[in-house]
Specification:
The protein is an alpha/beta fold. It contains five helices and six strands. Strands 3-2-4-1-5-6 form a six-stranded mixed β-sheet, with helices on both faces. The longest helix is centred in the first third of the chain and has 17 residues.
Length: 160
């Protein structure tokens, strides 16, 4: 919907994962899987992400969060692994990718990148970070006439 029309962007931090000492791949922990199911229940009930494409980083904890979330939503959410965009890119790089995007999007990634991206979009600069994202937390942003605003933010604690 580009610069002049609306777009919704959902920033989702990966859910809780096991430590690298437990498993170097860092898959989701039992707590993390529970967090994703709780978030999915809310999103399914509110129909927020119906049909929205989920971009995720290639790291296992983000991939698993996106995959489980899409499965739990029981809707047609395309998944796309975007390696560079969510692991190596700066918030400015990601903002540039979003500048001409016309459809709603969910990004499943990592801190501090997601918090810095939200800060950049809303405040015009990525530092100091104004948004701290809990694991499996979500920030809903909307763009109208080129300006980003926060619609809402949830943490897993609010969903229990």
């Amino acid at each position: 919907m580009g610069y002049l029309t609306g777009m919704n962007l959902y920033l989702i931090r990966h859910a809780h994962a096991v430590t690298a000492a437990e498993n170097p791949a860092r898959p989701l922990s039992r707590k993390g899987r529970t967090q994703v199911r709780q978030l999915a229940r809310f999103l399914r009930r509110t129909d927020v992400l119906r049909g929205v494409t989920l971009w995720h980083s290639p790291l296992e904890r983000a991939r698993a969060t996106a995959t489980l979330l899409a499965a739990q939503l029981d809707s047609d959410n395309p998944l796309k692994c975007v390696p560079r965009l969510l692991t190596e890119a700066t918030p400015a790089d990601i903002a540039a990718q979003l500048a001409n995007r016309r459809t709603d999007l969910a990004l499943v990634g990592h801190e501090p990148t997601l918090g810095e991206l939200a800060t950049l979009l809303v405040c015009g600069q990525s530092e100091p970070t104004r948004f701290d994202m809990a694991k499996c937390g979500i920030i809903a942003l909307t763009r109208q006439r080129g300006l980003w605003t926060v619609r809402w933010q949830l943490t897993p604690d609010l969903l229990t």
